[in-house]
């Protein structure tokens, strides 16, 4: 655990803060943090069947690209965790490469406060190579609010992104909200919908057709308390959004 903490601290000193990597980690966060003394290891696999076909602003095309992200998260207290990401791209035309890394400290409201909803806040930091992103140094601030209502689960992540180096460095904070609704049809199976948006700079929102909007049909499989399984298929709702994306998240908790 000391090695993991040291690695995360090193990334923080090197990288500062950065926004979430598009199509590398497609997930709507819940408010819960990893339990104290536990480590969650996750593999995020995302395949873009219908993406950008040509270079755009010197960024490699995403058509037929497989993204593999390793996420390691450790719980340091009952309300504080730190996660590290290692992004990788697999594709033809010399697109296979290590892309970058992020660090994500997160705190949540303790259960003892007895709030009616779950609330947490994460800051995600890191870098991504310029060939894979318009901005290589940036920041994400992600508030998280969720609620379990019987068999219905709702989560809302009103995320704010800020670039510090790259094409969008002079833009203000960009609004990128995420939303999830899932329903437990059995104790094991919980289908639902997930929404991911990139609305643009708050001080100058572009028209809808230039924004990014994705909708996923997804399912969570609660096969065991130590396992996390989420799979889905997503559609882009605007012309500038990657379309037909398959995603799979496999996670395992270790004490």
Helix content: under 10%
Give the class from helix and strand content and strand pairing. Answer: mainly beta
Instruction: Briefly note the CATH topology name.
Output: Porin
Largest sheet: 12 strands, antiparallel, barrel
In CATH, the homologous superfamily goes by the name: monomeric porin ompg
What is the first-to-last residue Cα distance?
10 Å
Strand order of the largest sheet: 1-2-3-4-5-6-7-8-9-11-12-13
CATH class descriptor: Mainly Beta
Tally of domains: 1
Low-confidence stretches: 7-21
Q: Secondary-structure element sequence?
A: HEEEEEEEEEEEEE
Radius of gyration: 18 Å
Mean pLDDT metric? 90
CATH architecture, by name, is: Beta Barrel
Instruction: State the shape.
Output: globular
Strand content: over 45%
Secondary structure: number of strands: 13
Organism: Chitinophaga parva
Keywords: Signal
Protein name: Transporter
């Amino acid at each position: 655990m000391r090695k993991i903490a040291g690695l995360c601290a090193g990334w923080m000193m090197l990288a500062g803060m950065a926004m979430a990597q598009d199509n590398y980690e497609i997930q709507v966060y819940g408010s819960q943090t990893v339990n104290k003394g536990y480590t969650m290891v996750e593999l995020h696999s995302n395949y873009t069947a219908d993406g950008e076909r040509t270079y755009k602003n010197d960024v490699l095309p995403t058509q037929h690209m497989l993204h593999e992200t390793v996420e390691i998260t450790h719980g340091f207290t009952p309300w504080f965790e730190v996660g590290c990401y290692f992004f990788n791209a697999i594709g033809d035309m010399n697109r296979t490469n290590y892309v970058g890394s992020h660090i994500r400290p997160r705190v949540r409201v303790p259960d003892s406060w007895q709030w009616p909803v779950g609330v947490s806040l994460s800051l995600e930091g890191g870098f991504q190579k310029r060939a894979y992103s318009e901005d290589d140094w940036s920041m994400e601030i992600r508030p998280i609010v969720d609620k379990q209502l019987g068999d219905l689960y709702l989560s809302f992540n009103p995320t704010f992104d800020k670039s510090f180096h790259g094409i969008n460095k002079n833009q203000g904070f960009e609004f990128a909200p995420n939303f999830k609704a899932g329903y437990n049809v059995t104790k094991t199976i919980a289908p639902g919908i997930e929404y991911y948006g990139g609305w643009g700079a708050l001080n100058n929102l572009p028209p809808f057709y230039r924004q990014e909007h994705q909708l996923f049909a997804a399912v969570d499989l609660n096969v065991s308390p130590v396992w996390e399984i989420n799979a889905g298929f997503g559609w882009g709702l605007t012309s500038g959004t990657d379309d037909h994306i398959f995603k799979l998240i496999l996670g395992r908790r270790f004490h």
